C-alpha cells in the first residue's frame, strides 16, 4: 500500500520533491488508456488518505481489492501517481516562516532562466518554484525556521546573486489552505 501521512499544515515540498518531479517528467510513460470512472474514484480516495486499505477502496468503488491494486500499480507506472510521500507539519519541525517570493531575473535568456531554475530546485528551503508570466520571473514558496534564517537565505539566493535583478517577499500570516489534492472529475 502506498503511504501518505496527513499533517494539519498541508503540503511540505522540498527540493528533493522538485528533483523527483523533474526526473519523473523526464521518465513518465504516457498512459495508453484514458482514466475511467474507477481510476478517478480511486484517485479521489487516495489523494485524501493514501493509507486507506485497498479493501475499503474496493468497497467504495465497487471493485475487488485485487482490481484496485492492479489499477493503482498501473496509475503509478503511467506517472499519474507521481510520488508517495509523508506530508510533515512545518510547526513540528519549528519551521515558523512561510514566505511567498516574487523574483525578477536580470534577463530572460535561456541560460539565465536555466541557472535560476537549477539554483531554486537545489535549495532545500525552496518548497515550491514556479516560472511564471506577468512581469516577474519566478514565484517561490520558502519555508524557514525564523526570520534570521530567512534573511541569510535571501542574501545568498537573491541579494548577492547576479542572476537576480530584484525580489519581493510576502510573509504568510496564516496557512488558510494548503492542499495537494487535485480536482478529479
Question: Care to describe what's here?
Answer:
The protein is built from 6 helices and 4 strands. With 185 residues, the chain is α+β, with helices and mostly antiparallel strands. The chain has a 4-stranded antiparallel β-sheet with strand order 2-3-1-4. Strand 2 and strand 3 form a beta hairpin. It starts with 14 loop residues before the first helix and ends in a 14-residue tail after the last strand. The N terminus is likely disordered.
- Across the major sheet, the strand order is 2-3-1-4
* Average pLDDT number: 86
Low-confidence stretches: 1-28
User: N- to C-terminal separation?
Assistant: 24 Å
Helix count? 6
Q: Radius of gyration over alpha carbons? A: 19 Å
Quick one: overall form? elongated
Number of strands: 4
Helix content: 25-40%
Q: Strand count, sense and closure of the main sheet?
A: 4 strands, antiparallel
Return the structural class: alpha+beta
- Beta content: 15-25%
Secondary-structure blueprint of this entry?
Blueprint: H1 15-27, H2 37-48, H3 54-61, H4 65-77, E1 97-105, H5 110-121, E2 126-131, E3 138-144, H6 147-159, E4 164-171
Antiparallel strand pairs: 1-3, 1-4, 2-3
Helix pairs in contact: 2-3, 3-4
